[in-house]
Amino acid sequence: MPTFIIMNQFKVAILDMYNNFPNEGMRCIRQLLHRAEHDSQVSFQVDTFNVRANNEVPGLEYDIYISTGGPGSPLASTEPWEAPYFNFIDALFAYNKQTERKKHLLLICHSFQLVSRHLGLGEVGKRKSTSFGVLPVHLTAAGHHDPVFAKLPEPFFAVDSRDYQLTDLHPGRLHDLGIEVLCLEKERPHVPLARAIMALRFSPEVIGTQFHPEADGEGMLRYMLTDERKQQVINAYGEDKYHEMVRLLGTPGTIDVTESTIIPTFLRRALAALREPALA
Asked: How many C-beta atoms surround the C-beta of residue 124 within 10 A?
């Protein structure tokens, strides 16, 4: 007789912040969701919302939300998608304060900057120069004990691509909201500038990263080796930066560790919490 495996189905919303720009992030996120389905024996109903281009935001009927990276400025604007997006963020946090079965949210890069600005956590501003490449990231004490980040090495490597950053945190605001700093950008003792915040735990169900935890070494390396992308990177950052990035993408123990740890652990923890019976 055939064996039937009964799988739970969960609803996942991807908030696409790429504004219709070509990217590798969506491919990587969908790949990780597919792996999580197989590993956890669940089924995902995945819906995508084109936030910036089509002014689309999800409601609160989903279980897990992933808000992506994207190009452009995270600073305040009059673009029509901003108010609905931040209303959604506020509604999710409010919902989680009132119910036992929480919503789980991952904020990546551009989304991380937007929500950090919205909550008034520190200074979100433009860097003196673009940060681009596979770069070391350093865990804080909270990061070493965080259930998602604790298994990462110190430092760990991540794909970083940003013109803006979060610095100069407001400690009182973090304390009031119960937010923890999980990691910081690489140390630069010769540069008299504040180190960027690279990840925050906003709540037990919500985390955000400045870097791209979805980036996969094999796929990103294949993409970087295309003639078009190679020339784009060399023109923008020089040959040395290009060859360094290609080397690190192909080196075991760098971003493959980050890709196989952060989002998979976030999803496993979300699924475990969602499977718990609701408290009476």
From this structure: 23
